[in-house]
Specification:
Layout: H1 2-25, H2 28-56, H3 59-85, H4 94-107, E1 112-113, E2 116-117, H5 118-146, H6 149-170, H7 179-201, H8 220-247
Antiparallel strand pairs: 1-2
Helix pairs in contact: 1-2, 1-4, 1-5, 1-6, 1-7, 2-5, 3-5, 3-7, 3-8, 5-6, 7-8
Length: 248
């Protein structure tokens, strides 16, 4: 529940920035309509993907699939956070992102259909849906693998509700949120759990098709977490030096 809360919080903050930009510069009605449409599509996508994974795959294959998905998302987030921590990539700034989205909205032409601003609707729908897809996969993979889908769902719902409340109260992008730190932490969690479940799922390739067992059971997750943390810190320390050497 904690992992899905933090991961979902980061994604919802990015989606909120896009919706706010469309609302302030184009049309609140259209931005909200796009958001609602995206949430409906995400709900249907969640049920379809969750049903397919939980019904069609045996346990070991399910662990391999969800572990691989978590590794894909986790390493993507960890790579960005590592590059930002090492100074090789600019920190993500929600205020700057809001300004860029608002500028694009002002420059876009006006096209209204059925009283809805098409540009605001489409951009809001796309932003919420794409950010939401990552939330859906994190929720499904954590929920199915941990055998606690309810906890995973409520973690995401709580994150979404908190972001909505903060956005409604502040009426501005949540730039005070230390997004890089959150993504760094979530990337470590996803990479650790992804490695754990993916390796367990490799048992599907054996003759018995049973899940593999880690030495120490669930405590191996802590070792994996420490390993990914150590590797990331080594990269943070060495990448700037490597870049300097290559520049010579």
């Amino acid at each position: 529940m904690g992992s899905t809360f933090i991961a979902s919080f980061v994604e919802f903050v990015e989606a909120l920035t896009i919706v706010l930009a469309m609302g302030f510069t184009r049309s609140w009605r259209s931005a909200i309509a796009g958001t609602i449409a995206a949430l409906v599509a995400l709900t249907a996508f969640t049920f379809a993907a969750g049903y397919a994974l939980s019904t069609w795959l045996p346990e070991a294959a399910l662990q391999l699939v969800v572990g691989t998905l978590l590794l894909i998302f986790g390493l993507q987030w960890l790579r960005k956070a590592t590059l930002r921590s090492s100074g090789l990539k600019a920190l993500h700034d929600e205020t700057e992102e809001f300004a860029n989205q608002a500028a694009a909205a002002r420059a876009a032409g006006s096209d209204r259909r059925f009283g809805i601003d098409t540009f605001a609707f489409v951009v809001s729908f796309k932003g919420v849906f794409l950010e939401g897809v990552e939330v859906v996969f994190v929720v499904i993979t954590f929920g199915l693998s941990a055998g606690n889908m309810g906890g995973a769902v409520w973690g995401a719902v709580a994150a979404g509700a908190l972001v909505l409340v903060l956005g409604a109260v502040l009426h501005r992008p949540l730039s005070m949120i230390p997004e890089n730190t959150l993504k760094y932490g979530v990337g470590l969690l996803l990479a650790a759990f992804g490695t754990y479940w993916a390796v367990e799922g490799l048992g599907v390739l054996s003759s018995e098709h049973h899940s593999l067992e880690w030495p120490g059971g669930d405590l191996a997750i802590l070792v994996l977490l420490a390993g990914w943390l150590l590797l990331s810190r080594l990269l943070v320390a060495t990448l700037p030096l490597l870049r300097k050497e290559m520049a010579r």
